[in-house]
Design a protein that fits this description.
This protein folds into 2 domains: 458 residues, Penicillin V Acylase, Chain A; 101 residues, Serine Threonine Protein Phosphatase 5, Tetratricopeptide repeat (Alpha Horseshoe). The protein has 20 helices and 17 strands. It is α+β, with helices and mostly antiparallel strands. Helix 1 packs across helix 5, helix 3 packs parallel to helix 6 and helix 19 packs antiparallel against helix 20. A hairpin with a 3-residue loop joins strand 9 and strand 10. The protein is 42% helix and 17% strand.
């Protein structure tokens, strides 16, 4: 999910006057710290074994040879927060810097940043009322290790709360125009051994730095079930995870009306499901208890039930989708249950976004995999082509592999096995783990992964095409910034941009936009016409190009008439 500047600023301005009126009450409501009565308040003192290995009693943080951090933590909620903060403090500080510096890039104006800070305070005014005490205590412990460099935004505990709602707030602020996560499940006759397999790409992008230091967290809480999750420094919620009973959760953002107040972050709801549910019915019961503030499909896989479903939540609706007469389930970024059959936001999203396209592509690739294996699931998640194997340009959001994923993961819940992608994106090795053995581990200096089960890296990362794409990404950022600054771009740069990713519509769109701003309408017309022949990501993008074409033709016609006179 990419954050965009325009939506943030637009929303902030609309609510500015209201922020002023309520700011005092907002500040008071957010200064409440959780009660620590009954929790162990001992301060952990970690031992630094090396720059990539820290330990505290049985708790540990270790960076494996694939560049993935492995975190093991146990205790009550406060201890889990404190120990996690102590072991990961450098990662936590760097991750917050990476995230907040991205906001600085998107909103460079200090004046507008002040608006945004007030918006966040107002928007999150009730978030603490919608997070269970246990998790507020955990977050409070973690916040003890936050930097003071961003106290002008909010105090550490409040910032920690905000960051746990970042996924939710991010797609709320941009009216949920998403870069989409893709998930699927298969079981029974659809898999090689009949057992459940789940694959997912988590396409949450807030800059390259944010995705570098992934953490595989193994949590052994005093209450509830042991579980694992893929996370990052400063994040205790769950976006992808599995517990000791083989119950899995993955989240896929949906679309609904923009909410006016933050409630329970999705990552906190899924954390609660992993910690306290062992079956699909138990997961549904927990989901029904919480009020969320954005729309989300939660794909639940269950070893006990030997199948998967999606729980579809939104601020004012709730649904459960189960397949009938099928042994596979596909989930992109739209709802499928009867509860949302007439939902106008969902129907519009299906029509205008790339969610349905990716759904059909997953369906197509699963049809080609008659007996799915973990390696087969990885191949699907790595796929960069469009429908019918059409090449649609690298980085196209209609592809399952958009070359921006924070992580990708494959689960085998009945075996308590999972495979996590290593950098870059989904192209590195998928590193294997066996949850059966990890919580019995007594050696904090040893990595948990299973070397014999590693799925090999994608050789695409060594090709000229990949190197060209990475160059294209950097150059496209530069071109965008120059267009915004109304600077002149030399023709060589524009030709290079086109050459580096020639099948991607956005290359031609950017060049066309530049020429339009420079009033070179003939060149702009040519570029937008080429863009129109490519696989354009969304209906909104297509309409924008069509509008440019209409305006250009009108301007060229005026020029022609003027010259004839």
């Amino acid at each position: 999910m990419k954050l965009t500047n325009h939506r943030i600023i637009q929303f902030s301005y609309c609510l500015w006057l209201f922020f002023i009126l309520v700011s005092c009450g907002t500040i008071r409501s957010l200064k409440q710290e959780p009660s620590l009565i009954g929790y162990n308040s001992n301060t952990p003192e970690r031992i630094k074994v090396s720059d990539s290995n820290f330990v505290y009693k049985k708790n540990s943080l270790l960076k494996n040879k694939y560049g993935l951090w492995e975190l093991y933590v146990e205790g009550d909620a406060f201890q889990i927060g404190l120990i996690t903060g102590s072991l990961t403090q450098e990662l936590l500080i760097n991750q917050e810097k990476a995230f907040l510096s991205k906001i600085d890039d998107l909103v460079p104006s200090k004046y507008k940043q002040a608006f945004l800070r007030k918006f966040l305070a107002w928007y999150n005014r009730k978030i603490h009322l919608n997070i269970p005490l246990e998790y507020k205590v955990e977050i409070f412990g973690l916040s003890k290790y936050f930097s003071n460099n961003y106290n002008h935004i909010a105090e550490p505990y409040l910032r920690a709360l905000y960051l746990h709602g970042a996924h939710d707030i991010g797609h709320a602020l941009k009216d949920l125009a998403l870069v989409g996560c893709s998930s699927f499940a298969a079981w029974g006759e659809k898999t090689e051994d009949g057992s459940l397999i789940i694959g997912r790409n988590f396409d949450f992008y807030v800059g390259d730095e944010f995705s570098k230091e992934k953490i595989i967290a193994f949590i052994n809480p005093k209450k509830g079930h042991k579980y694992m999750s893929i996370t990052w420094g400063g994040m205790l919620g769950v976006v992808s995870g599995m517990n000791e009973h083989g119950l899995t959760v993955t989240i896929n953002a949906g679309k609904s009306k923009i909410p006016l107040v933050a409630k329970t972050p999705i990552s906190i709801l899924t954390k609660e499901i992993l910690q306290y549910a062992s079956t699909i019915d138990e997961a549904i019961t927990i989901a029904k208890k919480r009020q969320v503030f954005v729309s989300e499909s939660i794909l639940i896989g269950s070893a006990k039930d030997k199948r998967a479903i999606t729980i579809e939540v939104s601020p004012k609706n709730f649904g459960v989708f189960e397949v009938t007469n099928s042994t596979q389930l596909i989930c992109s970024n739209h709802f499928q249950s009867s509860a949302y059959k007439e939902d106008k936001y969902n129907l519009k999203h299906i029509e205008e976004s790339h969610s349905q396209y990716r759904y059909e592509r997953m369906e197509e690739l699963l049809d080609q995999n008659k007996k799915l294996t973990p390696k087969g699931a990885v191949d699907i998640l790595r796929n960069k082509e469009g429908l019918n194997n059409k090449f649609i340009g690298y980085g196209n959001e209609k592809a399952l592999n958009q070359l921006l994923a924070h992580h990708s993961i494959v689960f085998k819940p009945e075996q308590l096995m999972f495979w996590v992608s290593s950098n870059p994106y989904q192209l590195g090795e998928y590193v294997a783990y066996d949850l059966n053995t990890i919580f019995d581990n007594s050696n904090p200096d040893t990595s948990f992964f299973q070397p014999k089960l590693t799925i090999e890296k994608d050789t695409f990362q060594y090709t000229q095409a990949y190197m060209d794409y990475e160059t294209y990404r950097e150059l496209s950022f530069q071109v965008k910034n120059k267009i915004l600054a109304k600077e002149t771009i030399d023709s060589t740069t524009l030709k290079t941009l086109e050459k580096l990713n020639p099948d991607y519509w956005k290359s031609y769109y950017l060049i066309g936009k530049y020429y339009y701003e420079k009033k070179n309408y003939s060149s702009a017309l040519n570029q937008f016409n080429i863009a129109r022949t490519k696989e354009i990501t969304t209906l909104q993008d297509q309409r924008e190009i069509d509008l440019y074409l209409k305006k250009i033709k009108r301007k060229l016609n005026k020029q022609f008439i003027k010259e004839r006179r």
